[in-house]
Write the structure tokens for this entry.
Amino acid sequence: MRIGDWPEVERPRERLLRHGAGVLSEAELLAIFLRTGSGGRNAVELGRDLLARFGCLQQLFAATLDEVSAVRGVGAAKYVQLQAVVEMARRALREEIGERDAMSSPRAVRDFLQLSLGGRPHEVFAVIFLDSQNRMLGLEELFRGTLTQTSVYPREVVKTALRYNAAGVIFAHNHPSGVAEPSRADELLTQTLKQALLLVEIKTLDHFIVAGTRTVSFAERGLL
């Protein structure tokens, strides 16, 4: 059935206008973005197909053009629009972190990292560099691949932090396996980097692991 034939109180667009975006399901939000369905499916059904194919919004956001286009009814135009929406959300969160103390808006930091790292198929180690008021100066993806003490070089982290003239840092890396729990190697790496940065008077404020929709904070776990 076409969404236009639904009772007005059940249509996603009208529900959003009446109650706000928070009441809509992920499929309904995608339907508003998609606008139209395809092949006898309405936009909500197409949104459900996308979620069934990718499992969650993060995986959809991280998908390639070929992967998204494999879903009937979604092509290059929709992919480009989706990437633009994701990038706008990422930049808005980056602005929030850049304008205020990152430690006073931990939700924004988590959301920013999930959008930046959550759907990656390989491990990425990134560092958020902060000024003396804990405002974000920039983010750098410094290393890729399996992360160990030997594959993440403290010298490179320190050198980049000095280039930013950073007063503090937040580490982040993803677990493509979907398991958010920090390993012993993660803990050892964090301590190695923390000690190296202390030599140049740069504080380590946190280390986040991003795994799917979960984000684990080392600071909250008492691992710093």
Notes: The two ends are 55 Å apart (CA to CA). DSSP finds ten helices and five strands in the chain. The mean pLDDT is 84.
